[in-house]
Design brief:
This is Universal stress protein. The chain is an alpha/beta fold. About 40% of the residues lie in helices and about 20% in strands. The protein folds into two domains: about 140 residues, Rossmann fold, CATH 3.40.50.620; about 120 residues, HUPs (Rossmann fold, 3-Layer(aba) Sandwich). The chain is built from nine helices and ten strands. Helix 7 packs parallel to helix 9.
Length: about 280
């Protein structure tokens, strides 16, 4: 069965880089790529300049410019990879980013969204731009993979999966992490940054459950002691040269803490490895 992948673009260098990463990540799979650009809702062009041409509506101007940019964007994708297993469909939506994404996810039955962590208007002082954070937090129908600026694809030797073992795991929420691991013969490194010397009974049960869920892929368990979650995850990823990190996005829980502005600024590792946000639908 083919994978149905939504790529988000504002035609920036970073959006192109994320799209190229996606093509390489799924190079051995039959995929339908849907490439979405949203434009014009606020009366401004994609790059922030106002529409001023006489005799044309902002909608018409934006649509025309988007069509031209899509042609150039697709040329660069095909120059990078002329893969017979991949098909493409471009979608221009006169909508907000979040509304446009939700409509395409529902209509096209999307498996995963892949996007860059910063766009054309992104500040270099913010690792996760607001658009990326909104998609990560508010699109609950499928996983999201955020690819940092200038990261080039390398076959992931291992994926780091931080957890506090405080919530029971479900196979369906970890399915996509397992799929990516199986695609590239990748091991999953479960990382627990210890808050105390011993796990509670419920934490032990959740750890055992995770072992059963990951039985089909290579995996190992690690425990680290440290004063802060961010520094320990950062050090672990750096030491092992890991290629990706994955989280389950529980509401107001682990991932919400990680994408708060002060912690993101301190954390730093998001600028070096792609971040896979998995969905919890309880």
């Amino acid at each position: 069965m083919d994978k149905r992948i939504l790529l988000l673009t504002d035609f920036s260098k970073n959006a192109l880089n994320a799209a190229l990463y996606a093509l390489d990540l799924y190079s051995d799979r039959v995929c339908s790529f849907y490439i979405l650009n949203t434009y014009g809702v606020d009366g401004f062009s994609i790059d922030g300049s106002a529409y001023t041409r006489p005799g044309q509506s902002s909608h018409d101007i934006a649509k025309s410019e988007t069509e031209i940019r899509f042609k150039n964007f697709m040329q660069m994708l095909r120059m990078h990879s002329d893969n017979s297993k991949h098909t493409y469909e471009t979608i221009a939506s006169y909508d907000s980013l979040l509304d446009g994404v939700k409509k395409v996810v529902a209509k096209k039955d999307i498996d995963i969204i892949i996007m860059g962590t910063k766009g054309m208007t992104g500040s270099r002082t913010v690792l996760f731009g607001m658009n990326t954070v909104n998609v990560m937090e508010k699109v609950t129908e499928c996983p999201v993979l955020a690819v940092p600026e200038d990261i080039k694809f390398r076959r992931p030797k291992e994926i780091v999966f931080p957890t506090d073992y405080k919530k029971p795991f479900k196979r369906r929420e970890l399915k996509y992490l397992i799929t990516i691991a199986q695609m590239h013969n990748t091991s999953i490194q479960v990382l627990h940054v210890m808050e105390s010397n011993e796990l509670s009974e419920s934490q032990e049960d959740n750890k055992e459950l995770l072992k059963r869920i990951f039985k089909e892929v290579g995996h190992s368990f690690h425990e680290l002691e440290g004063a802060s979650v961010n520094s320990e995850i950062n050090a672990f990823i750096d030491k092992r040269n890991s290629a990706m990190v994955a989280f389950v996005n529980y509401k107001r829980n682990f991932f919400s803490k990680l994408i708060s502005r002060p912690l993101v600024r301190d954390l730093g590792y998001q600028s070096r490895v792609p971040v896979l946000v998995l969905r919890n639908r309880t």
